[in-house]
Amino acid sequence: MRLVSLRFVYATLIGLVLAGIVHIAAVLAIPVLSEKDAVLRARTSENLDHPQPIYTIATGDEPSPPEAWLPIPDPAVAVGVCAYDLADGPMRVSARTGPLSLSLAAHARRGAFYAVTDQAAVRGALDLVILTRAQYDEALADDDENDPSRDVRIVAPDNRGFVVVRVIAGLPSQRPGANAAVQSVSCTTDTPTDEPAGKDAGGKPAGR
């Protein structure tokens, strides 16, 4: 009986030691893994005023790129990303709707926190504006009661993140159009000199 108890204690101690080693290894690996997360990988698109292609649908002339780093659940969906840093101002993503289904999804380090489709477009336009709480309050204060903004305003949980643009090609003939629709989306940073939100969809490119 005592031998069984000693074996149990021994096995428990070994398990605790192994668990401690795994925990320490995981903690030490965090800096390395964090350098490869989606937010940091998307930052290469901050200097662009349109989405960075992540997945381009294959056409008759061009195959799909092998370097897509976001999950691609459907090979008939073109994907692009726009990174943002709200320290430079609110991030505005503007899209014109067309015959192809389009969606925008805002992501932070903990995952997606908002998504919208072209069904929410007003007069053929979809404007998603991502702000901090302070920027949101300032935008509300600047609104004209007689001409309310048509922007879809979203308060982000973090200053840094990215917006994923997806366009579906239901037919092979629509694949080039889906790739082009992703690139036609505008990603800009609203600056303090811009007109109040909803008056002017312009802004400087998201890069500094």
List the helices and strands and how they pair.
Elements: H1 2-34, H2 38-42, E1 52-55, E2 77-85, E3 91-96, E4 102-108, E5 111-117, E6 125-131, H3 133-142, E7 152-155, E8 160-168, H4 175-184, E9 186-189, E10 204-205
Biased composition (Polar residues): 181-191
Protein name: DUF1254 domain-containing protein
Organism: Methylobacterium brachiatum
Biggest β-sheet: strands ordered side by side in the sheet: 1-2-8-4-5
Strand content: 25-35%
The percentage helix is 25-40%
Poorly predicted spans? 30-35, 193-208
Mean pLDDT: 79
Quickly count the helices. Answer: 4
**Overall strand count:** 10
- Rg of Cα set: 23 Å
- Briefly note the structural class of the backbone: alpha+beta
* Measured distance between first and last alpha carbons: 72 Å
What about the largest sheet?
A: 5 strands, antiparallel
